[in-house]
Amino acid sequence: MWWCVFHKFQRTVVTEGNKVRQLMIDGLNKQMENMIENMRLMLERLSLNKPVFDGVPGSAFMGKDDGDKKGGFFSFFTGGSENSSHGVKEGRKIDEGTPKAQTGYTGGRTQKELDDLAGDPSHGGKIRDQGLKEREIGLDLEQKGKLGKIMRDPQGNGGAEFIDTTNNVKWDVKSFVSYPNGHTSPKKGAFTVSNGMKAINKELDKNYNVIVDTRDMIPEHVGQLKEAIEKAGISNRIIWYP
User: Of 5, 26, 72, 190, which residue is most buried, by most CB within 10 angstroms?
Assistant: First the structure.
């Protein structure tokens, strides 16, 4: 009798131990994902000649919203406190109070106009990482003559990214990622042509044209999406970037 009880207890200890070990592995994986993402953002901020560590006025990272006071090097790379593994979204936010310098082509715009071009109307004009990417794309296409002079669409939720002021056509940016965070399963966000076309058609139905950002897509996925767009007869409403 006591021997059976002992074996049952032993199995329970092993099972619970495996659960704890898996939780630790998941936590470490999350920390690594945070570090990789924030290293990318650090390089982007350095290219704009901006400070990157929190605790410094004008820093890209000013700490988490959950009261983290540690700051500094560790907070930058993990996106949160030393005991946190859930700071990806907070970590990607950029200090909205700091002007975001645009290197290269500006189209003769003032810094305020450039900031407006990157601001998110859905969040009171705050400038975020995605807004900086969209501004970069819009200005590059404007410089290449693929778009006329652009302005930010002032519409909030459900609005486009830009309005081409030469013809009042609205353009939305779709930045597809083949394997987000290394995930190859569509259930975890990996790219599929079906989901890509759904996202594009959703904007076309609003009478917006679409800029497809392919920088984080593998060539195979780009080719599949181009083929689907051509078959759908909507190529004239798409701009490929870069």
Answer: 190
